[in-house]
Amino acid sequence: xxxxxxxxxxxxxxxxFFVVERLDEEGIEVGRTGRDALFDFVENNVSGFISxxxxxxxxxxLNSLVRELFDEVTGFGPLEPLLADNRINDILVNGPEDxxxxxxxxxxxxxxxxxxxxxxxxxxxxxxxxxxxRLDEASPMVDARLPDxxxxxxxxxxxxxxxxxxxxxxxxxxHLSANDLVxxxxxxxxxxxxxxxxxxxxxxxxxxxxxxxxxTTILNMxxxxxxxxxxxxxxxxxxxxxxxxxxxxxxxxxxxxxxGTGQISARELVINSLRMRPDRIVLGEVRSGEIIELLQxxxxxxxxxxxxxxxxxxxxxxxxxxTLLAVNGxxxxxxxIGRLIGSSLDVIVQLVRLPNGRRYISEVVELKPTADDxxxxxxxxxxxxxxxxxxx
Length: 392
Known about the structure:
Layout: H1 2-26, H2 35-52, H3 59-74, H4 79-84, E1 88-95, E2 98-103, E3 106-109, H5 117-128, E4 141-145, E5 151-155, E6 165-169, H6 178-183, H7 189-200, E7 205-209, H8 215-223, E8 232-236, E9 248-252, H9 266-273, E10 280-283, H10 290-298, E11 306-310, H11 314-327, H12 334-344, E12 347-353, E13 359-367, E14 377-382, H13 385-388
Parallel strand pairs: 7-11, 7-12, 8-9, 8-10, 10-11
Antiparallel strand pairs: 1-2, 1-6, 2-3, 4-5, 5-6, 12-13, 13-14
Helix pairs in contact: 1-2, 1-3, 2-3, 9-10, 11-12
Domain AAA+ ATPase: 201-355
InterPro entries: AAA+_ATPase, P-loop_NTPase, T2SS/T4SS_dom, T4SS_GSP_E_ATPase
Organism: Marinobacter mobilis
């Protein structure tokens, strides 16, 4: 079976070169030609090649070859069917024959294949070429975004030892509602009521969790309950929040260009947002020095602001925030750092993902500073699933 698949990939490589040559000979510009006309062109030339070279191919294989080559010419090749599959959340390409997808929180191997390493790199370059980004030995890593908003990270040799790699976090227009999350068991009605009250009463909230636990989903859901008369500024690396709100300003960070200049960081955007008269700031994720400005904003008139952070527990989230403050130049003692956190943050919402892919809110804690403990925590909610999962 592996040999048959390899032979098909080799055939695809030969036919692909042939079709590209024919496009050049005919002077056909892909970007200015209708999809139907392009499909007819690809179909006719693929069929002609197969017939001319007397390649034994079944009707199903011929149709597959036409579809795949059409995707090569007009889109991102083998990635196209995966990008079109609404069940898939993440696409992970570890090499030409090593492709995984995440469906409902569970990673599984895909039957998708690339021809070789060069094929993977061609697709990466097709993704980044409209953005003016560079990918070569001197610049072997790149972050990009597909036209639909999906986030892409790509890395090639010599940094990637086993060949080029692509990681795609798909963007979805269909965000889960609060009722969807309750129905799926991600939280109880009591937990939802608690969170709505926290948003409406302008509590400063951080959503904490590991990779793939649904932090952005919960942040998006919470943001829906911000009162309509308030002005909201959102700051993200890749715009994923979809707030149905009448008064919103969306800001997005920008990476450096090929000359290494032009970068706009989340920290700069948080500073700038304070000059935009926001009632609330919604920061997609805390990763670095922007935590300093965010906490100070929360503590000086921008109550009800929100963000997410990578952490495995509410207590770990506090430790991570303390670390970020220290390493990013917040010059204060441990107790002063604790007081800043305790006086700025009000609520931490902790998320968990089980091995079977199920995601849920494991706990909601309130920070209530005391004389002895500036980051003292009180539990407002704990999920029954914690006991079943051995988390308590």
